[in-house]
Design goal:
This protein has 217 residues and is an alpha/beta fold. The chain has helices at 19-28, 51-60, 78-82, 99-108, 124-127, 154-168, 182-191, 200-203, 208-216; strands at residues 6-9, 34-39, 65-70, 88-92, 112-117, 135-139, 173-177, 195-198. It starts with 5 loop residues before the first strand and ends with a helix. Bound molecules: D-xylitol-5-phosphate (DX5) and zinc ion (ZN).
């Protein structure tokens, strides 16, 4: 492995009754970013949490937040989420009519911009805006729920995304989200991923340090 992989535990799988403790625990265990899944019950079938809860998360976090917006027409809320000064604000390419404008709006707020692509969305959806994409989030499950199985076609997609990034000469980082465990993590890294999101494989483990360590190996 030539590059250093970063792990972003997804708080969706944390125990919400003791969120501050869960955050402290994954931070101590070696997490690089905190992945925050916002679901609106419209763009995805599930509802998770919004700004009120993220305010509490931001208060306790000492590592950067990575906010994954699974919401329809995210432009309406960019301001609201930018207040928490996340490292990345990630929108779904399928959720906005004017992706280029949305990315500009995120940058205007002084935040790095991310674009997520569903398993069924081709890479060509971001080809024209890649210079404005700081983080490309490849969904390896259909968004909405934790604990699903990794869709294996994602490996090839990571590789093609990497080629597109090299070809266009951008600094875009590749993040993979969904079904990340010991086996799938290894392959994602081999295919060119930079950041792995992991929910159940971290928060479902007895020992978070061990769980994150295994994914980074
Ligand atoms: C799914 C979310 C993921 C999810 C990952 O819609 O975007 O971040 O929490 O959970 P696991 O790692 O359990 O697949
Ligand atoms: Zn996510």
């Amino acid at each position: 492995m030539s590059h250093k992989i970063k792990i972003a535990p997804s708080l969706l799988a944390a125990d919400f009754g003791m969120l501050a403790q869960e955050i402290a625990n994954v931070e101590a265990a070696g997490a690089d970013l905190l992945h925050v899944d916002v679901m609106d019950g419209n763009y995805v079938p599930n509802i998770s949490f919004g700004p009120v809860v993220i305010e509490a998360i931001a208060k306790h976090a000492t590592i950067p937040l990575d906010i994954h917006l699974m919401i329809e027409n995210p432009d309406r809320y960019l301001n609201e989420f930018a207040k928490f000064k996340p490292k990345y604000l990630v929108v779904h390419a399928e959720a906005t009519n004017h992706l280029h404008r949305t990315l500009q709006a995120i940058h205007d707020l002084g935040i790095q911009a991310g674009v997520a692509l569903n398993p069924g969305t081709p890479l060509s959806a971001i080809e024209e805006v890649l210079p404005y994409v700081d983080l490309l989030l490849l969904m390896s499950v259909n968004p909405g729920f934790g604990g699903q199985s990794f869709i294996p076609e994602t490996y090839n997609k990571i590789e093609r995304a990497k080629q597109m990034i090299i070809y266009q000469g951008t600094k875009t980082k590749i993040q993979v989200d969904g079904g990340i465990n010991k086996e799938t993590a290894k392959q994602c890294i081999e295919h060119g991923a930079d950041i792995l999101v992991a929910g159940s494989s971290v928060f479902g483990a007895d020992d978070y340090t061990n769980a994150i360590g295994i994914l980074k190996e």
